[in-house]
Amino acid sequence: MGLDWKLKEKLAARLAREQGHIVYPAGGRARFALAYPNSYFVGMSNLGLHIIYDILNHRTDTACERFFLPDGRELDEYRRTKTPLLSMETQSPLSDFDVVGFAVSFEMDYFHLLDMLEVGRVPLLAMERDERSPLVIAGGPCATFNPEPLSSFVDAFIIGEGEETVGRFMDVYQAAKQDGATREETLRRLSCVPGVYVPSLYEHIYRGSGELETIRPVGDAPAHVERQWVKNLDDYPAHTVVVTDETEFDLYLVETARGCGRHCRFCMAGYCFRRPRNRSLAVLKDAINGAKVYGKRIGLMGAAISDYPKIDELSEHILSEGLAMSVASFRADSVTETMIRSLAESGMKTITLAPEAGSAKMRAVVNKGIDEEHLFHAMELGVAAGIRHYRLYIMIGLPYETEADVDAVAELAGRLKDYLEAHESRGTLTLSVNPFIPKPFTPFQWAVMAEKKYIEAALKRLKKALSARKGVGLIAEPTKSAYIQGVLARGDRRVSCALYRAHMAGGAKAFHRAMKEEGLREEFYLSREYGEKEIFPWDVLDMGVKKEYLYEEWKRAECLETTIPCFDGCRRCGVCG
Ligand code: SF4
Ligand code: SF4
Predict the structure, then answer these.
(1) Taking CA atoms, which of 188, 239, 435, 531 is between 20 and 30 Å from 506?
(2) Whose CA is closest to atom 8 on ligand 2?
(3) Any domain includes 501
(4) Residues 201 and 286 in one domain
């Protein structure tokens, strides 16, 4: 095994620039590699990583170290010098760890997960690992809503919110280790931990037509794996633990709330992390007190930040402590004057709103619950506070969308720009436009993903309509990766063979060819009508939301029927009993 000292020194230097990491002396503790399948910059902006790092390192029997995907040139350097992937804390090789736990937030990171295993010298395929290999586990949003495309590479998945499960997982793992249990027996025991899904303990049987006929548990594996969720958020702190300047947004992250009760029909976070919960203001004030020493801007995290009931008090508290605040986006219908003023005083130059669609019809289809007046009101508050720039998140290719709905996006942008010009002559409006990707465990899991030629034509139409407007910009992600994400989001375990083949042939760019070579048709996953009773690859998981409820919501979308948000005493979807 080679070792490039420059790579090792680079990691050590980066570690020296951090505050808050923990390094345990060698020996005595189980070694847990917390791996983020993207760069250090992206990974260190992921609050889940900080939370799990903190929980594991507070155990008396576990030492957790972090691994990140080296950037392009560095990854080549690892390969060229045959250096195994090294940890941040002690620059130890990945394969020396007992457990490798990936935090997976994005489908495109599946390719990076395989790169990290390969460079880390851990056999890629779960079936090829032996008693000396680490256990490879994965958690995070993607692992929660559909683990199947990763099922050939991951021994066990943590389904739902990891705070409670990861501790129980380690208890059972440690006990199995002490008993001298084999890898197989350890995994069998782990499959009994609530929220742990061991894919090798389930057989997937397909019909000749390609659909799943049944998912069959092997031996005494549970028929369903219940996602776990934290009932009282105050039980677990959720803020930045390791502080560094080298993150995407250079923020000290603090989570205000989790889950969202707004029922947008495309939103995986809104369905997989129900019910909506808030952290108490006292706990948030404590977190902000702890942040003061670093002097960083506070990045408030949560599904819909402006829905936090005490957002005004929280905003005022942050500023009164001499700190600044930031939010990624917020709902136009719950934003307050105090919040916007606090953001402006914090130096925020751009407000991001997410109407998702231009027409009232499409906002009813997705159940966005945002009217045009809300957008104008938010802009009015922003302009009054001195904020000049506005960004709108828009999706195209939504179910039941027509050309008129695409035109409505440009028309809405025009009206908002008119308002902006009348009140703030130097203001800009930017549309961030993405194709809609159907996600598991949402009412739109039955939806067809619009074809590439439709998306490209809609984008062209939108660009043309906006070209006449000065100060209105349009940013669109490349459509190619959206279709890979679409396949991976609703893929079954056969797709993991294509992932493996693509990895061997160079990664994401080889995915389309790999699918063909595996005899898999992308249209099967993207553009066919899914049946009401179709067995989905993720049906073995139990998110608490009844499938019939999701289907009813899917049908309501067609009729433009809107659904009211969560409320106390509600029992509609199955999560609250
Ligand atoms: S407001 Fe809608 S899109 Fe935003 S988190 Fe909630 S459900 Fe998702
Ligand atoms: S049961 Fe009602 S309140 Fe509870 S998560 Fe479902 S919709 Fe929301």
Answers:
(1) 435
(2) 566
(3) no
(4) no
